[in-house]
Amino acid sequence: MADTRRINLTVNGESHEGEVETRMHLADFLRQSAGLTGTHLGCEHGVCGACTVLVDGEAVRACLMLAVQANETSVTTIEGLAEDGELHPVQRAFQEQHGLQCGFCTPGMVMSLAAYIDENPSPDERDIREAISGNICRCTGYQGIVAAGLQAAVEIRGGG
Amino acid sequence: MKPAPFTYHDPTTIDELVGLMGSLEDVKLLAGGQSLMPMLNLRLAQPDHLIDLNTVAGLSAVDPTDVGLHIGAMVRQADLMKNDAILTNMPIMIEALHWVGHFQTRTRGTIGGSMSHLDPAAELPAVALLYDAELTVNGPEGSRAVPMREWPIAYMMPNLAEDEVLTGIDFRYWNEPHGYAFEEFARRYGDFAMVAVGALLAVEDGVIRRAAVAIAGNQPTPQRLDDVEAALVGQAASGETFQNAAELASQIEGMSDSYTDGRYRQRLAGVMTKRALTRAAARAEGGS
Fold first, then answer.
1. With an 8 Å Cβ cutoff, are A61 and B6 in contact?
2. For A4, B138, B142, B242, which has the most beta carbons within 10 A of its beta carbon?
3. By percentage, how much of chain A surpasses pLDDT 70?
4. Do both B104 and B183 map to the same domain?
5. How much is the pLDDT for B288?
C-alpha cells in the first residue's frame, strides 16, 4: 500500500491541502496536484534548475525536496510572481531584453534571479552569471538573460 | 512519481531517530537531499525506509565553545555562509562554500550531509580536515567522537556504522594570526571539483610557523598533505618555498575517471596548491 501523508501548504498565497504519496517531490505536487504547470521539470536530479521555486522565500530545487517536506511552508512559483496583473521586474526585464527563446528554462531562471537580486540588490555581470550558473538554457540565450538580470536589479534597487 | 516506493519517517528527537535506525532494515537518512534526492529520483537508491532528519530537533544550531564552534549536522550551507562567527574566525569555510553547488542548492544542503555523503570532490570535508575537526556520532550505544582524519574510510564511505548518524562537528579555531585560501578547478562553475586545495598559513617575520593544507578531488577520499606541511614550516614564505610544496603535492597519484585523467589531476594539484599557498601567505602578511 502506498505510503501517504496529509499535507497543508500555501502556494502563491492560497492554501493547498491534500493527501500525497510521501515519495512525490514538490515539483510534481505543484504541477499535478496543484495544477501549476509553470514550474518546469528538466532533469529531475538538480542539475538544470528549471524547477526552481521559492520555499519560505528561499530559492530551492523543487525536484530535490519531497512534497511532504513542504508541509506548513509558503511556496512561490512563477505563477505567483506578478502582483495585481503587474509583471515582476525580473519578468518585465526578460521580456524587454529578449531573455527567453523557447521558454523552457525561463521559470527557473526568473525565480533564481528574483531570489538572488532580493538578497544582492547590486550585482555586477559576474554575480548574475554566478547566480544562474545552476540554470541551464539549451537555447544558449544567456546574453539576454544576463542583461535582463542586470536591468531588473537596477529597477528593484530603485535606479542607479 | 520518480523515487521507488519507501516508507517515510519523520522523528522529532535524536533518541527516536536512533531507535528507528536500530529497528528498521534498509534505511537511508535524508538530510538536505541535494545528493540523495537525485539518487532516489534516478532510482540509483531504492531504500525501503527513508528517515527525514529535517524534523529532528537539536541538529540545526551553531554554538560557540571554549575553543571554537560546534556546528549541528543539519545546519544549511547557506546559513553557514551568513554566520558571523564563521566569517570572523574561519573565513576559509565561507570561501569554500562558494564552490559548493549553487546558491539554490545551498539553501537546502547541509554540512552533515556533505560530510556523510563524502563525495571525493566535496569541499567541506577538506575544510574539516584543515581544522582537525571532531565529529560527534550517535548510535544505539550513545555518542562517540571521531577525529576528522579517521572519518573517511574509503571512497564515499565515512566512519559510520549502519545504525549511527552524524549529529555535529566541532571546530577548533587557530589562535595565531594566519592567512587562508581555498582554490578549486572545475569544468563549470558549481560543478564537481577536479581538484580543490585549502590552505591555512601562520607567518611570523616572513617565516612560516604553522601550516595546514588539505586536498579534495584527486583521490578517492580528501587528504591532509602532511609532507607538504612539513616542507613549509620553518621556511620563508616565498615563491620558491611554495613551488617546492606544489611539486610535492603533484607527486601524489591522482585518480582517473571517465572525464579526467589522473596525470591531469596531479598537475592541477600542484597548481592549486601553489595558488592557495601564495594567496594565504599574502593574507597572512596583510594581517587578515
1. no
2. B242
3. 99
4. no
5. 44
Q: A22 to chain B, minimum CA–CA distance in Å? A: 6
Residue of B265, B273, B61, B117 whose CA lies nearest to B181: B273
Is B2 inside any structural domain? no
User: CB contact, 8 Å: B105 with chain A?
Assistant: yes
Structural domain harbouring B150: 62-172
ipTM, 2 decimals?
Answer: 0.95
Partner A contacted by B186 (CB < 8 A): no
pLDDT of B269 strictly over 80: yes
Average pLDDT over residues B181-203: 94
A64–B6 CB contact, under 8 Å:
no
Report yes or no: A133 at the B interface, CB cutoff 8 Å. Answer: yes
Beta strands in A3-71 (DSSP E): 4-11, 14-21, 52-55, 58-61
Spatial CA neighbour of B182 closest among B100, B60, B78, B75: B100
Task: Find the CATH number of the domain harbouring B216.
Answer: 3.30.390.50
A1 or B241: which leads in pLDDT: B241
Domain count, chain B: 3
Residues B46 and B68 in one domain: no
Residues of chain A with Cβ-Cβ distance to B3 below 8 Å are 23, 25
Tell if the CB–CB gap between B105 and A22 is shorter than 8 Å: no
Least Cα distance to B224 among B113, B283, B150 occurs for B150
Encoded amino acid at A154, one letter: V
Residue B64 grid cell: 560557540
Ordered domains of chain A (ranges, CATH):
4-80 (3.10.20.30), 89-156 (1.10.150.120)
Structural domain includes residue B202? yes
Asked whether residue B286 carries a pLDDT value surpassing 80, the answer given is no
For residue A112, which residues of chain B lie inside 8 Å, CB to CB?
Answer: 104
Q: What is the pLDDT of residues A59-87, one digit of tens each?
A: 999 999 999 999 999 999 999 999 999 99
**CB within 8 Å: A25 and B103:** no
In this structure, the answer to whether residues B11 and B109 fall within a common structural domain is no
Encoded amino acid at B72, one letter: G
